[in-house]
Amino acid sequence: MRLILLGVPGGGKGTQAKGIADRYGIPIISTGDILRAAVEKGTELGVMAHGYMTRGELVPDDLIIGIMDKRLDEPDAASGFLLDGFPRSAPQAEALDRMLSEKGQSLDAAIAIEVPDEVVVDRISSRLTCSKCSAVTSTREDRDGKCAQCGGELKVRDDDKPEAVRNRLRVYREKTAALITYYENRGILREVNGNAPREQVACDIRAALSQ
Fold it and tell me: Could you give the CA distance from residue 205 to residue 197 in angstroms, rounded to a whole number?
């Protein structure tokens, strides 16, 4: 099964990804995780990407496409994958189609999780990330500013602050939303209401993939 997850940042893609990956026995490939790891390690890619990420802007296509082409060649992606965070624009979607075609593959479905913008701003701006282990919790659950898992300091990432989140949503509406039309025209779009309890969203995704 070769799938992608679409939707606004903070719309629940990461939460649902694990259940989907476990169900179909496929790896989750998240560009966000790959890029954040590069930033933390101070790699050349991380340095180049850091400025874009802190401003809530999309990382340039050539960087992302190169990363994904190499990642999809790894052995664990040979029989399927779940893409979270890629593609984010029509040119990236076209590049993905070309990459898969060259590998003799194609997408099975594009799942779009729909959530209102203000719900997303509230969700993301209330997240705290551990400076040591990168565990994520909510400001509503925080008691002393320390990570429950390792004791590290909890803080709001720059790209999770309200102003950055709103900019990310603006960028999404301008560029990424075109993917809904792109995959609808391909006949593989599956839309799911993400402003519902987690278990209901998971159930709706399973039903959509059984179509």
Answer: 13
pLDDT one-digit tens code per residue, 42-99: 877 778 888 887 787 778 888 888 778 878 888 999 999 999 888 988 889 999 999 9
Q: pLDDT for 115-171, tens place per residue?
A: 999 999 988 888 888 888 988 887 655 557 888 888 888 888 888 899 999 998 988
Q: At what angle do helices 61-71 and 90-102 cross, to 10 degrees?
A: 30
Q: Could you tell me the end-to-end alpha-carbon distance of the chain, in angstroms, rounded to an integer?
A: 14
Global pTM value: 0.73
- Kindly list the catalytic residues: 13, 88, 127, 157, 168
Strand 109-114 versus strand 154-155 pairing type:
unpaired
| CA dihedral (15, 59, 169, 91) positive or negative | negative
- 113, 11 Cβ separation under 8 angstroms: yes
Please give the torsion angle defined by the CA atoms of residues 146, 57, 5 and 10, in that order, rounded to the nearest 10 degrees. 40
Cα→Cα distances 153→37, 137, 202, Å = 18, 12, 32
- Whole-number Å distance between alpha carbons of 142 and 139: 5
